Amino acid sequence: MLSNQKTIGLGMALIFSAVSVQAQTKLQLSAFENPGGSWSEVAKVWADPMQSDPVLFSEGKGTLILNAPTKKKPGTDIITTEKFGDAEITLVYMMAPGSNSGLYLQGQYEIQLLDSWAKTEVKAGDNGGIYERWDESKPDGQKGYQGYAPRQNASKAPGVWQTLKIQFKAPRFNATGEKIENARIVSVILNGVTIHEDVELFGPTRGALAGGEVAEGPIRIQGDHGPIAIRSLEVKPFDTPAPEFNNISYQVFPGSFTELPAENNLKASSVGKITSFDEFVAGLTSSSLSKFEGTIAVKKAGNYTFRMSVPSNGLGLLQIGNATEALQLRQGMIVAEKSLPAGEVPFVIWVSKPTDWTAQGFYLAAESEAMWPKTYTSPAGMEVWATDPILVDTRETPVLRSFIELPDRSKISHGISVSSQSGTHFSYDLNSNQLLRVWRGGFLDATPMWNNRGNGVSRPLGAVTELSLGTALLLNADRSAMSAEWQAKGYQILGDGAVKFSSQSVDGQSLTDQIQVLADGKGIARKIELSGNSTPMKIRVAPGKVLTAIADDLYWIEDSGLYLKVERADQKPEVGKDGIFLPVTTSLSYNLLF
Predict the structure, then answer these.
(1) Which of 343, 357, 350 lies closest to 323, judged by CA?
(2) What is the Cα–Cα distance from 401 to 27, expressed in whole angstroms?
(3) Quick one: 415 exposed, middle or buried, by C-beta within 10 A (0-12, 13-18, 19+)?
(4) Residues 140 and 542 sit within 8 Å (Cβ to Cβ)
(5) What pLDDT is recorded for position 113?
(6) Quick one: which of 287, 306, 352, 568 could link to 256 by a disulfide (CB 3.0–4.6 Å)?
(7) Would you say 132 and 141 are in contact if contact means Cβ atoms under 8 Å apart?
């Protein structure tokens, strides 16, 4: 139940109670304290990424918030009327070319918002960075400190909607107001890419609100540095305390068990009481079966998911509340999803170590919608269960053949991924001649491909834009499927981020498809040439249903977050039910910027 989620800046925001929907309310600039004259509510906003001036264009009055400072209307910050402690904050925003802004958690800790398009090296002051703290008493060049750069540049082009999701833990204070625990960034995800994890914030960053650190504070968005647009700002408080396992008693039964026996046939070798599972010692080096029981103190009614597993081929059973199903020991991850009332709930846990060499201990954790995940116990050496990722080094392997999984979970068997030193990459389907995806950031995670027996799949590491599901490249003029079959004839690597693909049809036509990353890393250029053809055809360049003309040769595909730049005025894009299409007869050249 999304009972605690607040939505700011979204046209029709839903306010939920614990039982049912109470109201539908427009929450716009009224959600902020005294917004200045540079802020307004507009229906549409866009930018020209090719110009250098920091400008966002707009029209109409609607559900988007725009900051457009001018000399007559200088930019000002906006501050929410609501205050928050622990929370997940999700901001959907758009930067103007070269523009600068920031989101301050509790008005104290800034996550930088900046046009960092295609930068190969990013710092704390770049998009998604945790901004520096500041000390004027230090020498020049040393005033800024404790800033944290993003792991990689996952930024999109100016004029494209970007999504920033932050999980934040507020500082803790004792009864006298003394800070006893620093604030912490649990994670920051920019455009689907994790760029920060578990960062301790030792104090406010530069430009924080006066008054210092607090248990609850507002969201502040910087408006005095440049234009920015906001599509939505959602704050989901994490205010559900984790359930606690109490009154734990245990019994240990010697023997090897793969099935749960009748209890009246068991004789315990040891019994006892513990305050936490980590205190448990079986007292046996041989195989054993252990039973734990007690109560779970649930502070807040809600839906909870408990996860349990036993290492080294062990088996387990997790019972929350009264059993209504047949009980049996199981290997692997055991999941119990329960709707629990507030109060004391009984539990029973069985842990079977069927072999002498089985490691001691077990893993137990819980999670809920508005609760920080809680791990109650984990066995020694659990970290070895995880596999270190196998990342592809672009200097050693700039081009990789592999299986490629698409969003609908279908698998491309003849995929190829091409990297560039600018950090812009793409994948191609040799069977369908389709450009599958483009992305910026890290290249590939080949762990699924090479770990253990492997499944042949590599996965992109950066901010990905999906372009195709592997359907045929060439279509009839009415965008219907063609009957002609094409066979791949190979490819030629032309340089950094540049490959020419060749195919031939059964009736003797030939196709070359050259794709190369632009020198500035801001996108890719594609040139298709057909020989032996005189029939007008279409190709689908990207998914999307909203196409905006930015200039004579430049278009914004809003719902895909792409810019389409065409070379010829007579080859204009058109919107179909399945995406954006371009015409081709003998040749076609276009760029995708992202």
Answers:
(1) 350
(2) 49
(3) buried
(4) no
(5) 98
(6) 287
(7) no
Neighbours of 52 (CB within 10 A): 8
Alpha-helical runs (H) found in 110-265: none
Q: Is 63 left (phi over 0), alpha (psi -120 to 50) or beta?
A: alpha
Whole-structure pTM value:
0.89
Residue 426, token pair as written in the block? 């793409």
pLDDT tens-digit map of 354-401: 887 666 789 999 999 999 999 999 987 665 556 789 999 999 999 999
The mean per-residue pLDDT over the stretch 526-547 comes to 95
C-alpha dist (Å) from residue 254 to 267, 281, 351: 8, 13, 12
Q: List Cα–Cα distances, 235 to 80, 86, 104, 579, in angstroms.
A: 11, 10, 13, 33
Q: Residue 456: which pLDDT band, with cuts at 50, 70 and 90?
A: very high
State residue 508 phi and psi, 5-degree precision: 95, 0
The DSSP-derived string for 496-528 is: TTEEEEEEEETTS-EEEEEEEE-TTSSEEEEEE
Q: Identity (one letter) of the amino acid at 194? A: T
Model confidence pLDDT, tens digit, residues 311-340: 888 999 999 998 767 789 999 999 999 999
- For 397, other C-beta atoms within 10 Å of its C-beta total 13
Residue type, 297: A
Q: What is the Cα–Cα distance from 48 to 423, expressed in whole angstroms?
A: 22
Q: Is 243 helix (H, G, I), strand (E, B) or coil?
A: coil
What confidence tier does 10 reach under pLDDT thresholds 50, 70, 90?
very low
- Note whether 200 and 182 are within 8 A (CB): yes
Structure tokens at 1: 């139940």
Distance CA 587, CA 594 (A): 23
Place of tokens 């204009």: 572
In sequence order, the β-bridge partners of residue 188 are 166, 196
